[in-house]
């Protein structure tokens, strides 16, 4: 069985795919345009399954590497095909019309919304929403392994995610229950505004959010 | 004139005081118990004014180094004595009865609440809420200068804060308007839960939240 399925082959799908291969996990790539999935598979190299969205996800871990609205559509359309899977929401539901808030109400999160749409038996976790694609592809910034915050209500799912993240040479941080996605999404929105601020010359969608401890 | 007044002489007041002195700024310390202010002044050393809460704040920058509820009381009781000042809210309004959310509604923040109570002409900024006292006293973690996120609606006030923070050998980050305090307070709440989690052995109220850029 394939270990990880990534749906979506944009920058984040490609970056997470790079880390999955660094972790020596088997990978399936799906995209609405199967040709894009095959192109990314060829670019990443190795024995990667590639196909169109709609094809059965073979991974135990299914990463929705698409924007929030597309992620909602995916869990709805896949339905029970995601039962038994760990479904990873990476989205940042920013209201880009104002760039001043999230597009989800403050008493919920993209992750909880997606969990509410997912079929019974699918376990939604939040992860990789605070790692920018450029940084994730490299895996470190300024000599520090990236931190990957994982929020979820299943300890088993979070353990599986921690194993994947660790194998990918990143540092997993258990951020608590799925509702902590609210704080993860909120802060990443703030970090996105910093990247977009021309006054902050060092921040160009290539920074890393890091919790440093005394060495 | 004194440059900075710190009201409150607990761990955060002491740590910010240490940084203010590192910045070679003049300092006034006020505490409900004037004796505590004098004790901290003696401990920090140097030519520091010390007195009771209620005494006129002499600093252009007035740091409310107290919990959220006490900060609200201070701006109300000081009233117009804070006009013309930069008033720094450092609080994290965590609901400690549940340790599961903030105690302010999600469509506002401690900083905005305090700004709403402050007299006309007082300029409230959010700063230092993501720096733990132990870390702040040292000024760096793992060889990295601390990041100090500053949110506020006055560019002039944020510039003054950036100058102070830089002189204190920390890195200021302009986090945007005062309402970005919502995201700063939310994420610090999450970081606090990590420090309190015994499974995360490296996190003991001594970490630093850092935005790393490629070197």
From TrEMBL, chains A, B:
UniProtKB keywords: Oxidoreductase
A molecular-function term among this protein's GO annotations: oxidoreductase activity
Tree of life domain: Bacteria
Keyword Signal among record annotations: no
Presence of keyword Coiled coil: no
InterPro entries in UniProt: NAD(P)-bd_dom_sf, P5C_Rdtase_cat_N, STEAP_metalloreductase
PANTHER family named among the record's database cross-references: DUDULIN-RELATED, REDUCTASE
Protein name (database record): NADPH-dependent F420 reductase
């Amino acid at each position: 069985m394939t270990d990880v399925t990534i749906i979506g082959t944009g920058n984040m799908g490609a970056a997470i795919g790079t880390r999955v291969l660094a972790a020596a996990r088997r990978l399936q790539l799906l995209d609405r345009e199967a040709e894009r999935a095959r192109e990314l598979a060829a670019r990443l190299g190795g024995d990667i399954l590639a196909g169109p969205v709609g094809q059965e996800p073979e991974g135990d871990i299914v990463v929705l590497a698409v924007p929030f609205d597309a992620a909602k559509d995916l869990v709805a359309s896949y339905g029970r095909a995601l039962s038994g899977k760990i479904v990873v929401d990476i989205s940042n539901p920013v209201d880009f019309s104002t760039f001043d808030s999230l597009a989800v109400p403050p008493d919920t999160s993209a992750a909880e919304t997606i969990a509410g749409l997912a079929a019974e038996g699918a376990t939604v976790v939040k992860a990789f929403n605070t790692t920018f694609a450029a940084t994730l592809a490299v895996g470190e910034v300024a000599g520090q392994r990236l931190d990957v915050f994982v929020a979820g209500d299943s300890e088993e799912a979070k353990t599986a995610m921690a194993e994947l993240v660790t194998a990918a040479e990143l540092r997993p941080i258990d951020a608590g229950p799925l509702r902590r996605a609210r704080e993860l999404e909120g802060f990443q929105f703030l970090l996105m505004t910093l990247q977009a601020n021309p006054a902050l010359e060092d921040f160009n969608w290539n920074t890393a959010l890091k919790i440093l401890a005394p060495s």
